[in-house]
Write a structure and sequence with these properties.
The protein has 812 residues and is of the alpha+beta class. The chain is 38% helix and 21% strand. The strands form 12 sheets. Strands 2, 3, 4, 5, 10, 18 and 19 form a 7-stranded mixed β-sheet that branches. A 5-stranded antiparallel β-sheet has the order 12-11-23-22-21, with helices on both faces. It has a 3-stranded antiparallel β-sheet with strand order 1-8-9.
């Protein structure tokens, strides 16, 4: 091989090596570029995978569960509220919301149009399909639900929606009417009824401010709000599997989580006593021409339990946005005008004014509002003074009509003075100078300590309250101890220039007359779960003893004298009932406006019930010195609140089946002259007889304009005060004689009733002071079965059977 040939071969080899090297470099570059590009491409993919599988794991998992499962809430039943006797005050029942489905209306119309077209093409009748579904829906719902047709038409335009709620919790008659309309017009799916729960209050306005009401968010007011957590329970849940179209997959799985029904409240309120409180309050407001409503509270003296609590104006719990009181409604325009003067337009002013009216009727004056208690507060000062020994029942005072306290001459209600009086008379006369004297003797330190003990003030000067289990309780407005100087001490001694709530006063006064114990007032006695287990029970243990039992007994005796001895509380006196109490008349911050009240308790020897009745602003057309109503009635606690409280106590004691207790003075003497009622119209005759202390029984047919032509007893004769006079009207003929009933073994009230039934009267003998349920008849001066003339007086002898039993036991 030549040199040239060898070079050629070598060149070829070198060339091949260079090509191989280039190929390897190209391969490496390709691999590198592929790796770089691959990494660049996969980094976002990996990032997205990380985002989906790690970062958003819980979110996407929940979405998957939501897509694959369906849930339906199972509503818990709200607890029931009962009174102390088991009467239902609030209960939940099934009600229905009315819902419109615009999408279903379109589908229904398309379905009918197709059927109509087929019927036309086949030559068949098509009247059954010739309908305007939307018009049927709009016309029907506008009529039944009293809705605006234009607004309903607008709702139907949202054809992708399957849910347009037209009404909530409709009444049963509306529900039935809509069901019938759907069936009659074949509108199933276009309108449907969705189950809901509705709170129902069987007694309507009864205890409205206490029970309260609910709204879409649960308890909104009263006990419904305070105990919402216990009442509402916990909703349950049904979970089912669903396919991709959102339909339930049957026989796959279903989980059910039970609802926990709400707990029941058992109150201390008695519906019967509550009704008495409300009726007494409304009657008093009407008779005394009261402008701003009032309050009435009845409390169990032994526990602090509230038996009844009324506030007026009230409202219907089933329609709580309606204003019931006509006077309140009549003030709407005036309130609107006030808002307009502040710059509001007419619509805004009306909304604000109406909201004011609602808030006024929703307020519970017995616990929300404060007032100057006036002379009712003197019962607390009396207890403190007796407890501290700064006075005694035997002490005498001289009232000159005023008392000088530094630069202030503070007058008594009797500007000429009461003169010489013992403590009982001073309490009965409600003498301001005497109580100022007692306050001065106590001094600021001891006086303020009793304010704290009675729950009127706090040691740190903050506002005090009772802690009653109702929302919105107000607090006292009392001076700090540092500001409690001589003048403030003087005015506080007769209940002026500081503010407390009615519930504070009755809780404090209860400690004065129940043996000295302060109880926290309460309205919820217990809470029970759905299985009957008691989850809460009120504790009626007294919080503290404020005064001794002996001091309390003395206060009871003195306060009973206020009513029974013809003093300021005399209008609360009722024969057969031992009632004690204290009147109160306080001027508000508005000149010429007063709050008149009466604090009463019974039976006075061992109180079972204590009541507080107050009227806010009797219409005053008189002067500050002599305030009177348009009808001429003098504005005072003794003249206005005391009669109402007396009647209320009698009603409650009768309801609780307490036996009557007559004093010897009430039964022993035939001392009251009978007025002449013959010839008078019946209505006037009854009023006249009642003004003289008698009750009346009418025999015959007629009305208040009928003339009385005969009466028992005869005019000018004397019978016991409180006796029943029989008035004859119309064609009824009085008997010439009557048979005397056998009274042997009867209690005083039974003997009275038996004699009054036949037109006879009773004069009682034999008891030293009180005739009680243990007192029995053992003799009568006109024998049983003998004849007597209507109006005759039978002398009846009584003896206390408990004493006789004790004597027999001693002899045995």
């Amino acid at each position: 091989m030549t040199q040239k040939g060898r070079e050629t071969v070598e060149d070829k080899q070198k060339k091949r090596r260079r090509e191989n090297l280039a190929n390897r470099q190209l391969f490496h570059r390709t691999v590198f570029l592929l790796a770089v590009c691959g990494i660049a491409v996969f980094i976002p993919v990996i990032g997205q995978m990380w985002n989906l599988q790690i970062t958003r794991h819980e979110e996407l998992e929940q979405k998957a569960v939501n897509q694959q499962t369906g849930t339906m809430a199972v509503s818990a039943s709200r607890g029931t509220i009962y009174d102390s006797q088991g009467n239902v005050l609030a209960i939940s029942s099934t009600a229905y919301d009315i819902v419109l489905s615009p999408k279903a209306i379109v589908q229904k119309q398309q379905e009918l149009d197709k059927k109509k077209q087929k019927a036309i093409e086949s030559g068949k009748p098509y009247d059954a399909y010739d309908k305007n579904v939307q018009k049927l829906v709009v016309d029907g719902m506008a009529s039944i639900l009293e809705l605006d047709a234009a607004d309903l038409t607008q709702k139907c335009q949202d054809t992708e929606s399957q849910y347009k709620r037209l009404a909530q919790k409709v009444d049963k008659d509306v529900e039935d009417e809509i069901r019938a309309y759907i069936e009659e017009n074949d509108l199933t799916g276009c309108i449907y009824l969705q189950p809901n729960t509705k709170r129902y209050y069987p007694y309507s306005t009864l205890a409205s401010q206490i029970v309260g009401f609910t709204n879409d968010n649960g308890g909104a007011y009263g006990l419904e709000s305070t105990f919402d957590k216990q009442l509402k329970g916990k909703d349950g849940l049904v979970v089912t599997a669903q396919n991709g179209r959102g339909l339930d997959v049957l026989n796959f799985f279903q989980d059910y989580y039970d609802a926990e029904n709400g707990e029941d409240l058992h109150l201390t309120l008695d519906a019967g006593i509550q009704q008495m409180c409300e009726s007494a309050l409304k009657k008093g407001i009407e008779e005394n021409e009261v402008l701003n409503g009032g309050f009435a509270i009845a409390m169990n003296s032994h526990t602090g339990a509230i038996l009844g609590m009324a506030s007026y104006p009230d409202y219907d719990l089933n329609n709580y946005t309606d204003v019931l009181d006509e006077k309140l409604k009549g003030s709407l325009e005036e309130r609107m005008k006030a808002f307009q003067e502040k710059g509001d337009d007419a619509q805004t002013a009306r909304q604000k004014a109406y909201s004011e009216l609602l808030n006024i009727q929703w307020r519970n004056k017995a616990i929300n509002d404060t007032y100057e208690p006036g002379s009712t507060f003197k019962s607390l000062v009396l207890a403190a003074a007796l407890e501290e020994g700064v006075t005694t029942p035997e002490e005498h005072f001289n009232c000159t009509g005023s008392i000088q306290v530094y630069d202030y001459n503070i007058k008594c209600s009797r500007v000429t003075g009461h003169g010489d009086q013992d403590l009982a008379q001073a309490v009965g006369n409600s003498c301001n100078p005497v109580f100022i004297t007692l306050g001065q003797r106590l001094g600021p330190e001891r006086f303020y300590r009793y304010l704290e003990e009675f729950g009127i003030a706090n040691a740190d000067g903050s506002s005090a309250s009772t802690g009653i289990d109702l929302p919105g309780e107000g607090g006292s407005l009392v001076w700090n101890y540092e500001d409690f100087g001589p003048v403030n001490l003087a005015t506080a001694s007769f209940g002026q220039r500081f503010n407390i709530t009615p519930i504070q006063l009755i809780a404090a006064a209860n400690a004065v007359i129940n043996g000295g114990y302060y109880y926290q007032p309460y309205v919820v006695d217990s809470v029970e779960d759905a299985n009957g287990n008691v989850t809460y029970a009120a504790d009626p243990t007294p919080l503290r003893q404020v005064v001794s039992a002996s001091t309390s007994a003395t206060c009871r005796e003195l306060l009973e004298g206020v009513v029974g001895n013809g003093l300021t509380g005399k209008n609360a006196y009722r024969a057969g009932y031992r009632i004690g109490g204290k009147t109160g008349t306080s001027e508000t911050l508005v000149a010429g406006e007063y709050i008149v009240s009466f604090l009463g308790f019974a039976p006075a020897d061992d109180p079972e019930v204590v009541v507080l009745v107050g009227f806010d602003n009797p219409h005053n057309v008189g002067s500050r010195a002599y305030p009177v109503t348009p009808s001429g009635k003098y504005i005072s606690g003794g003249g206005m609140a005391a009669p109402v409280a007396g009647d209320l106590l009698v009603d409650i004691l009768d309801y609780l089946d307490y036996g009557k207790q007559y004093t010897s003075d009430e039964l022993a003497g035939a001392d009251t002259e009978v007025p002449k009622l013959i010839g008078l119209d019946l209505g006037y005759a009854k009023d006249f007889a009642q003004s003289k202390g008698f009750t009346c029984k009418v025999v015959g047919e007629g009305d208040d304009t009928s003339e009385v032509y005969y009466q028992t007893a005869q005019p000018g004769s004397f019978v016991p005060k409180g006796s029943e006079l029989v008035l004859y009207i119309g064609e009824a003929a009085p008997p010439e004689t009557v048979a005397v009933p056998d009274l042997t073994g009867m209690a005083p009230d039974q003997a009275l009733a038996a004699l009054h039934e036949v037109g006879l009267y009773m004069k009682a003998t034999g008891s030293s002071k009180y005739y009680t349920a243990e007192t029995r008849v053992y003799n009568q001066d006109i024998a049983a079965g003998a004849t007597a003339k209507p109006g005759d007086v039978v002398t009846v002898s009584f003896q206390d059977t408990s004493d006789r039993d004790n004597e027999l036991g001693a002899l045995g």
